[in-house]
Amino acid sequence: MARLTSRQRKAMPSGDFAGPGRSFPMNDTAHIDAAVREEKFASPATRAKINARARAAGVNVGGDGNVFAEHHKATQV
Predict the structure, then answer these.
(1) 1 within a domain of the structure (yes/no)
(2) What is the pLDDT at residue 61?
(3) How far is CA 13 from the centre of its chain?
């Protein structure tokens, strides 16, 4: 996963995060993959935000609305 320093994370706009409290940064495919892997533990509202943000990044979404992280089209969000 690409290293994200504290300074870089603080400089990111809030819209680049899918979770509450600026959790789940979605700045590159490695971070999107990580968020997707953790989505099963998230609340329904957070899960919806992760899926929406992943779709916006060009990630294929299955018929049930779940994101398939292994099918990334995006290289950088």
Answers:
(1) no
(2) 58
(3) 14
pLDDT along the chain (77 residues), means of 10: 86 88 86 82 88 79 53 44
Q: Is residue 43 part of a domain?
A: yes
Cβ-in-10-Å burial (0-12, 13-18, 19+) of 41 comes to exposed
Q: Tell me, what's the pLDDT at 71?
A: 43
Q: Which residues pair with 31 in a beta bridge?
A: none
Query: Which amino acid belongs to residue 76?
Result: Q
Tally Cβ neighbours within 10 Å of residue 63: 5
Number of helices and strands (H, E) in the chain? 3, 0
What is the reported pLDDT for 10? 93
Q: Let me know if 16 is exposed, middle or buried by CB neighbors in 10 A (0-12, 13-18, 19+).
A: middle
Total domains in the chain come to 1
By residue range, what is the domain housing residue 64? 22-77
